[in-house]
Amino acid sequence: MRIDKYLKVARILKRREIGKQLALNERLFINERLAKPSSEVKVGDLIRIVFGHREISLRVKEVRDSASKEQAFGMYEVIEEKKEEL
Question: Which pTM value belongs to this model?
Fold first, then answer.
């Protein structure tokens, strides 16, 4: 599944377009490699997202085409969350 779609289905981001913009602005990584919006995500992959002064790392536990709110939270596990102090 495409990374931009995965982030939306897993409810990490509200819209697919946000995932696309993060990738185009070099703020989205899969297994420590820069991701494109069309980069494929597989179970076990490590995703790192940089939001301004915040960074989150998560591991993909499940990939599905659609998910309820409860199912979405089971699709990944948060490995690390950093917040840069200003």
Answer: 0.90
Structurally, what CATH architecture does the domain formed by 3-83 represent? Roll (3.10)
pLDDT grade, residue 85 (50/70/90)? confident
**Residue whose entry in the numeric block shows the structure tokens 């494929």:** 40
Distance CA 65, CA 78 (A): 20
**Domain parsing of the chain, residue ranges:** 3-83
Question: Looking at this protein, which amino acid is placed at residue 23?
Answer: A
What are the E-state strand segments in 12-70?
28-30, 33-34, 46-51, 54-60
Which of the four pLDDT bands, split at 50, 70 and 90, describes residue 86? low
- Using CA atoms, how far apart are residues 63 and 61, in angstroms rounded to an integer? 7
Instruction: Round to whole Å and give the CA distance between 48 and 27.
Output: 8
